[in-house]
Design brief:
Blueprint lengths: L9 H12 L9 E4 L11 E2 L9 E2 L1 E4 L8 H13 L12 E6 L9 H11 L3 E8 L5 E9 L2 H10 L1
Parallel strand pairs: 5-6
Antiparallel strand pairs: 1-4, 2-3, 6-7
């Protein structure tokens, strides 16, 4: 007969069970940005109607529903449907980058002046970057991984 090795220690069994059943809020938010292109390679931007970036032009996107176990790909598909009426599947997407940040007293928002060059320089490739946001408004960026798609970069250079 098979027995659960945790059953001999009720305290450990309860702790083990709570690890899988307890809902815990993450100390950070995860968001997806979706860069959509037309046949001329123009990127679709939306004028933001709420913070962050109220009144600015930005790719569509939003925060993951982590409490529902939503993946970044599923989030991008949901946001595309909600914000621009585009129905896509995760298989149609390419993950271009990941940005993490360390904020000051929870008041963090990395600058788009860094994000756009990272995206355009890695389109078709991949990057991972980290932004340390300081109390004085200064941001220190570290590029942690960079794989550029040279074919795509060369094609863009010859188009212009």
């Amino acid at each position: 007969m098979l027995t659960d090795r945790w059953s001999s220690c009720p305290r450990l069994a309860r702790a083990r069970a709570s690890c899988f059943t307890a809902r815990m809020a993450l100390p950070y938010k995860i968001s997806s940005l979706l860069y959509c292109f037309n046949e001329r390679d123009d990127v679709l931007l939306l004028e933001r109607r709420k913070e962050p970036n109220l009144g600015l032009w930005s790719p569509c996107g939003g925060k993951l529903k982590t409490e529902a176990g939503e993946s970044p790909y599923a989030c991008a598909c949901r946001e595309a449907a909600e914000e621009i009426g585009l129905r896509i599947s995760p298989a149609a997407l390419h993950l271009t980058g990941i940005v993490s940040e360390h904020g000051y007293e929870g008041q963090a928002h990395w600058d788009r002046e860094q994000l756009w060059p990272l995206f355009w320089g890695h389109r078709g490739g991949f990057f991972a970057a980290h932004c340390h946001c300081h109390p004085d408004g200064r941001n220190d960026w570290t590029l942690e991984e960079s794989t550029q798609n040279l074919t795509h970069l060369n094609a863009r250079r010859t188009d212009h």
